[in-house]
Design brief:
homodimer; about 350 residues; alpha/beta; TIM Barrel; three-stranded antiparallel sheet; 14 helices; about 40% helix; globular
Chain lengths: ~350, ~350
Amino acid sequence: MAASNRLLDLLGVELPIIQAPMAGATTPQMAVAVSNAGGLGSLPSALYSEAELRAALETVRNGTSKPINVNFFSHENPPEDTARQAAWRRALAPYYVEAGLDPDAPLAAGGRAPFNAAFASVVEDLRPEVVSFHFGLPAPELVDRVKRTGAKVLSSATTVAEALWLEARGVDAVIAMGVEAGGHRGNFLTPNSLVGDMSTQVGTLSLVPRIADSVSVPVIAAGGIADRRGVLAAFALGAEAVQVGTAYLLTPEASVSAVYRQALASAEEATAVTNLFTGRPARGIVNRLMAELGPLSDLPPAFPTAGGAIAPLRKAAEAAGRGDFSPLWAGQAFRLARPMSSAELTRSLAGVA
Amino acid sequence: MAASNRLLDLLGVELPIIQAPMAGATTPQMAVAVSNAGGLGSLPSALYSEAELRAALETVRNGTSKPINVNFFSHENPPEDTARQAAWRRALAPYYVEAGLDPDAPLAAGGRAPFNAAFASVVEDLRPEVVSFHFGLPAPELVDRVKRTGAKVLSSATTVAEALWLEARGVDAVIAMGVEAGGHRGNFLTPNSLVGDMSTQVGTLSLVPRIADSVSVPVIAAGGIADRRGVLAAFALGAEAVQVGTAYLLTPEASVSAVYRQALASAEEATAVTNLFTGRPARGIVNRLMAELGPLSDLPPAFPTAGGAIAPLRKAAEAAGRGDFSPLWAGQAFRLARPMSSAELTRSLAGVA
């Protein structure tokens, strides 16, 4: 029932606990605390510029001598689609009017940065021991640049087909991401724009053993795990480590807004997968926007461009103490999480004192 | 990690394995084989008349001296809604035309029988050791009639609120039914008619520990479990037994049509929760009707009346070897199931030779 040494050796860590990268909520201090506790701390880069990532990664490097993980999104930015953006703004216009905002005011771009040559240079310079990707993998030449640094490469699979695709392209381990997981779904072969395809996404309990039966690389379980019981269950299913995100939102090292913290503390079994905030399906606590326009909809323009038009609504609502338009990313196990430090949580998940 | 004796003592069985009642697919022979192997065989009654249930239960009684479970749906039949039925028939009319059927031909009622006084008499006469309900519980006086026979009472919960509701009304154990489970969702406090509410249903991995933390009666895990690994995971989460359905569809004791058997053997990670076949959400393998009209839709009339208009389409398609309109109920773990006898499967799930 204990995690095999195979994955611990691969990652160079003592404990089979990976703190999930959560762009916006994970801080360098969180990653440092997790790695120093013996787990694998992860730094998300999707909301960073190259310079910001470099600074954050230097902070992590200075905080720990243990292995660290840097996570990148590997989508391609879509072509400009003015018609869909206009339709999206029309759909949101009543909310703008209600908030006293101009529905036609120019917008800042709402983006998430994909892995690119500039980020690859940061990896080459600062040499994180592990690099994980979300939404498949970047172009082969970029993956090769990462591998030549000696970094171990991980990526998420939401189906057996995705796990086989990743294994064939040389990942060192597969993160089996069940539908319970918070934040963006990692799916990249299953279409993400259709309600029907999202409805077939599988829970961790079924997904982990299927993927463990299908690939020869180690499997990391993600989704629905927030305490030691979930970790033991994941090992029983064939996982060699777990990736836990939501539980770390309750640590003092998390960067979480007041409305987000309040939602995490008060809501009851009410998360859903929505594409309204970015254009890609992601799980969060149900709020007004999700209840009224979704949770899944054909309206939002392609990832990551849907967020620009949400941002002013979010800002106005949060100023009034409401999370009506905030992406309150959380996994289905969020009510199992208990407030404690990132180091304590890492050890608690691993079952060590 | 072993199941506590508490639930085994309560149910009077040797193995912590409950074969799920699957109306249409479970035979008396399956229930007999499971109970004789040391698990708890379950006879579903939703598609039986009183006389049919009595005959089936007598067959089970004659086949085993071990404890048996009889399962009932506890919905109330809805009032006639001719406008919604007409709209539903209009939506299905193109399929009727394509199949060479008359869209206006009179229909047989498509029903599922709820627990009632006649079924209570069967329980009083044949005294199953366990009675389980789905969709909450029937009226208190009917529950009392069951309890006075000495039967232990189980029911399914899909949320903590439902588990607390059931415990307050005296159930002996709660079945924590994760979203992975095949067939009808057991939800009864969460509305079942809205797409959004269904999207918040929780996976077994998160649900079992939450319910185990919230009630003092034993918890049975259901959903996503098809082999020994899932059983061990359920125990780690706090369950004292598991209820497994889909894996029993591959046993020789199952009554499964040719198209159904073919879908179970060939499909890949493609189940979804749909309300098209009966009017209530239920998980099955995605087929043409689900892909084209759903999987969830506001069109079907209230449970259980949606099925009448589907029946002629199903019959015609199955005659042509296609499951386009058949409810192919299956849980998300269906690809983990391996063909074997019901007795072997029961022992294999329990980890005994």
